[in-house]
């Protein structure tokens, strides 16, 4: 029973250069050597990248999903991916949208790099390997194991810039915990059918932007953003509200491309038909915006880009957000 380990870099793999800050340069062999508890779990280690997670792109994650799929087809019980935490909520969600296998694909990383006191990477890697090897973690899609908690990729958020307890699922809570080394699942959300594969060139050419509205925001910013865009996510106030003079501008954009309404609040859903003012969720839906539901703006952007890269028409975009949001 082998677990495949793919390393992409991030703080978990960082070490000093002697001439400045830490950079990603530890290999999978270095990472696993720091975790004696891993001895009982045979690992097939593949070093893919050694980069800060801000440098990752969709194509690398989709290629990684393919390689992880090949690993489970070859008999791996599950797969662990180590990477930087900054973009992990997006990469894990992207992987979850396309991961078709029952085996667990588990993302993890670290908040304290290995040069600091109490680095969390070794414990996170051990927990992730235990989850990847656990039969009870099958059929849950892509997971995030961090701080001895197990989160569904579709719910998890990075909620703190430095805390080792940064990953949380504000709308759902963790799916489970790793307790005394055992994987304990508390709840099993149903999975969605995976999205079809997308063409690399089409993905690279698909441009989706995210605009977060702010107090006294300037709608002219949308005009600057719009040319060349295929889709837009708007992170509105609260339940999905924007300043009144944004409403016609967003309506005009929604006539040309899918514009998805999400909330900048950090948790909770945008509403559909409670408020009636200009710029409210009801007004924006009437003007053609798509309701993002419970999806946070970052996940909404990932889903919209994948849908558009896959050639989804407006009805398919609506249906996908109704399903995932
Ligand atoms: N900046 C780092 C990264 O995302 C942070 C981390 O790994 O936690 O690569």
Automatic annotation (TrEMBL):
Coiled-coil boundaries: none
A UniProt-annotated Pfam family: Asparaginase
Keywords, sorted A to Z: Hydrolase
Record has Hydrolase as a keyword: yes
Positions of substrate binding: 53, 85-86
Family: Belongs to the asparaginase 1 family.
PANTHER family: 60 KDA LYSOPHOSPHOLIPASE, L-ASPARAGINASE
The protein's name: L-asparaginase
């Amino acid at each position: 029973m082998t677990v495949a380990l793919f390393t992409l870099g991030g703080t978990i793999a960082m070490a000093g250069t002697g001439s400045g800050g830490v950079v990603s340069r530890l290999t999978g062999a270095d990472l696993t050597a720091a975790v004696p508890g891993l001895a009982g779990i045979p690992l097939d280690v593949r070093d893919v990248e050694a980069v800060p997670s801000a440098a990752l792109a969709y194509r690398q994650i989709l290629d990684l999903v393919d390689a992880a799929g090949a690993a489970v087809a070859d008999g791996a019980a599950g797969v662990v991916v180590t990477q930087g935490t900054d973009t992990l909520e997006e990469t894990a969600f992207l992987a979850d949208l396309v991961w078709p296998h029952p085996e667990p694909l588990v993302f993890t990383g670290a908040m304290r790099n290995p040069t600091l006191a109490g680095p969390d990477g070794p414990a996170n890697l051990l927990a992730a390997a235990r989850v990847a090897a656990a039969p009870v973690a099958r059929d849950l899609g892509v997971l995030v194991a961090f701080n001895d908690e197990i989160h569904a990729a579709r719910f998890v958020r990075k909620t703190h810039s430095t805390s080792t307890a940064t990953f949380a699922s504000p709308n759902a809570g963790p799916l489970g915990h790793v307790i005394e080394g055992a994987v304990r699942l508390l709840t099993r959300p149903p999975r969605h059918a995976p999205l079809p594969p997308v063409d690399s060139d089409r993905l690279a050419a698909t441009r989706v932007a995210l605009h977060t509205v702010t107090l006294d925001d300037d709608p002219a910013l949308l005009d600057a953003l719009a040319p060349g865009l295929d889709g837009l996510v708007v992170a509105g106030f609260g339940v999905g509200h924007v300043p009144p003079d944004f409403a016609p501008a967003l309506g005009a954009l929604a006539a040309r491309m899918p514009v998805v309404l999400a909330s900048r609040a950090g948790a909770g859903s945008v509403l559909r038909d409670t408020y009636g003012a200009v710029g409210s969720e009801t007004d924006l839906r009437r003007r053609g915006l798509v309701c993002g539901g419970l999806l946070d703006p970052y996940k909404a952007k990932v889903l919209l880009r994948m849908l558009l890269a896959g050639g989804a028409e407006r009805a398919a975009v609506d249906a996908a957000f109704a399903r995932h949001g």
